Amino acid sequence: MIGLIRVITFSDVKLINYHGNLIRNKYNLSIVSECIKNQDKGIHDDVTERKAVPKIIDLGKRMADSGCDLIIVSCAADPAVKQLRSRIDIPVIGAGSSASLVALANGKRTGVIGITEEVPAIIKETLGVHFQGYLRPDGIDNTNDLLSKSGQEACVQAVKQLISGGAEQILFACTGMGTINLKDILNANHIEVPLIDAVDAEGLFASFYSKRN
Amino acid sequence: MIGLIRVITFSDVKLINYHGNLIRNKYNLSIVSECIKNQDKGIHDDVTERKAVPKIIDLGKRMADSGCDLIIVSCAADPAVKQLRSRIDIPVIGAGSSASLVALANGKRTGVIGITEEVPAIIKETLGVHFQGYLRPDGIDNTNDLLSKSGQEACVQAVKQLISGGAEQILFACTGMGTINLKDILNANHIEVPLIDAVDAEGLFASFYSKRN
Lengths: 213, 213
Known about the structure:
2 copies of one chain form a homodimer. By secondary structure, chain A is α/β, with parallel strands linked by helices. Chain A has helices at about 15, 20-25, 45-65, 80-85, 95-105, 120-125, 150-165, 175-180, 180-190, 200-210, and strands spanning about 1-5, 30-35, 70-75, 90-95, 110-115, 130-135, 170, 195. Chain A folds into 2 domains: about 1-95 and about 200-210, Rossmann fold (3-Layer(aba) Sandwich), CATH 3.40.50.1860; about 95-200, Rossmann fold. Chain A contains 10 helices and 8 strands. In chain A, the strands form 2 sheets. A 4-stranded parallel β-sheet of chain A has the order 2-1-3-4, with helices on both faces. The first copy, chain A, is globular and about 50 Å long. The relative contact order of chain A is 0.16. The model of chain A has no long low-confidence stretch (mean pLDDT about 95). The interface of A and B includes residues 91 and 93 of A. Chains A, B: Pfam families: Asp_Glu_race.
């Protein structure tokens, strides 16, 4: 069983399980999902990340103690991933490092879109010379802004701008972009470069390291 | 359709398609495999790698021209991968970079076994601080040596030695180790750390980037 940590607080069971269900449906894995508490807007800046880290460590340790054989931290900033790796023996997979490593496997110059003011450090560091540029789409301040039609149109514009600037593929530096299925939205807008969805990427590596594999 | 390049010369169709069939069976992808010419012992040192590079470039370009939408260079040294990426637009996946990037997704210290005197450069560079050490099992000089019982026992011993030295997972730096299903051999010998098979790793990324995805 895989433990998937949501870094945003939901009470709706369907929302809690949304990333887990995307991964389960694509990779045929057994997943239990849990949210950290009291973060209704998730992680979208340094303050909200610092607030989340101890909660993620506690939840990850509890999931490992309860028998999970792999932990996914489903957030593009990889919050608490390093700390968890030093505390538990099972594989710990982060959305941001996963998306960046998938991008490197293709070797193309990678444009990044996200919801934070700056590109998440784990993504910029991992991409290295393959990092092309970063944009936060207009009007997007947190993951909930992605749900509006105007937010989604701003994502399409940002991606077009990155490609004009030389990006050969696009990485989604917010797992909320998986929630809205931004890949399909971009395809419908004739974006044809490879698209790296961080939820898909974390699922890919979880499928490789899961004991079921 | 994915084009898979074997860097060893076979005439037996079953051997030519062996890696492609492993990937097809696990990831449900359509794959056509071809060998480079006149390298009966494959790539196992600098001389054989230099000899292979122009042949791989020619074959990869021909496969792209004939309609393949992704190329796999099925060799742990990633020969000609960078050159091919600069010459064709479709994704080019290398076995060595794939295995190393999969290892980084788990973040554990990685011991490497292979058939060359030194660890392939692409693997050591990509693993960075996560590289734990490298061993060539006793009596193994080229991929054909892996087929013998004594060669396989030497692989088990080398893996045990790397784990004693602090490796938390093991990466196979020769695709011939996928051919002999070294993962099953190690599991049967009670090796329980994560095992990263380079053929499996290249298939993983091909499944992500394939147009079918």
